[in-house]
Specification:
This protein is 22% helix and 20% strand. Strands 1-4 form a two-stranded antiparallel sheet. Strand 2 and strand 3 (33-35) form a beta hairpin. It has 69 residues and is α+β, with helices and mostly antiparallel strands. The longest helix is centred in the last third of the chain and has 10 residues, at 45-54. The chain has two helices and four strands.
């Protein structure tokens, strides 16, 4: 999974930080999202999906990696 954020879309609600604090943070000055881990480990994928789903500004994009065999 690859995570990207659009800081221009972010409204600073903080939902992502509550859902996946190991992957997202917020800037102190304005609350805009900060991406801590663009390639989170599999154990965090469900939390990251939840963060993207609850983002009121749709500022989080996920790219699901396809497994190579």
């Amino acid at each position: 999974m690859r995570v990207t954020v659009d800081q221009d879309k972010c409204c600073g609600a903080g939902s992502c930080v509550l859902s996946a604090p190991d992957v997202f943070d917020q800037r102190d000055e304005d609350g805009i999202v900060v991406l801590l881990d663009a390639l989170p480990p599999a154990a965090l994928h469900e939390a990251v999906r939840e963060a993207a789903a609850v983002c009121p500004a749709a500022a989080i994009a996920l790219e699901e990696a396809t497994e190579r065999v």
